[in-house]
Write a structure and sequence with these properties.
about 160 residues; mainly alpha
C-alpha cells in the first residue's frame, strides 16, 4: 500500500496521487489500462463450471439483476437523498438534554458521556486516570448519584 502524506491537508491520499483533475484523470486511465481483463476472468470462471452449475449461476444472476432493478425503481436517487436528509434532520431535532433510557448502562449516548466529562472536576478526572476500569466505573457512578445525571447543569456544587 502506498504511504500517506502527513499533514498536507489531503487525508488518505497516496504520496504519488496527482493534485489536479487532469493529472488525476490521466492516472485513472493509466490504472484502468493496467487492470486485469474482467471479461477474460469471467470467461475462465464460467468454463470451470459444469452445465448444472452454469444453469444455477445464470438463474441467480438473473434474480440479482431483477432485485437490483427493483431497488432502483423503489429507491430513485432523489428519494434516497430525501430519506438521508430526513434522517439527518431528525437527529438534529432530538433534545440533547433528554435523559438517556439507561443512565448507567451501555445504552448511554456519546453526548451524555461528553456532558459528564465536562462536569467532572479536574481533580477527580486526575484520580480517575489512575484507576482501573472497574474502579473508574464505580467512582463515576457514585459521583453521578451524588451530583445529578448527565443532563444536570455544569458544576452543581
Amino acid at each position: 500500500m502506498d504511504e500517506m502524506r502527513p499533514g498536507d491537508g489531503q487525508k488518505g491520499r497516496p504520496k504519488d496521487a496527482p493534485k489536479d483533475d487532469a493529472a488525476a484523470l490521466a492516472r485513472l486511465k493509466e490504472l484502468s489500462e493496467k487492470a486485469p481483463d474482467m471479461q477474460a476472468a469471467e470467461t475462465k470462471a464460467w468454463n470451470v463450471l459444469n452445465e448444472p452449475q452454469q444453469k444455477f449461476v445464470k438463474g441467480r444472476l438473473e434474480e440479482m439483476r431483477k432485485e437490483a432493478e427493483q431497488r432502483r425503481l423503489d429507491n430513485p436517487p432523489d428519494k434516497a437523498k430525501e430519506k438521508a436528509e430526513r434522517k439527518i434532520e431528525k437527529k438534529k431535532n432530538k433534545n440533547p438534554d433528554a435523559a438517556p433510557a439507561k443512565p448507567d448502562g451501555p445504552g448511554r449516548g456519546q453526548a451524555d458521556r461528553e456532558n459528564l466529562r465536562e462536569r467532572i472536576p479536574p481533580e477527580l478526572r486526575e484520580k480517575l486516570r489512575n484507576m482501573s476500569p472497574e474502579e473508574r466505573r464505580e467512582a463515576v457512578r457514585k459521583w453521578v448519584e451524588e451530583n445529578g445525571g448527565p443532563g444536570a447543569p455544569k458544576n452543581p456544587k
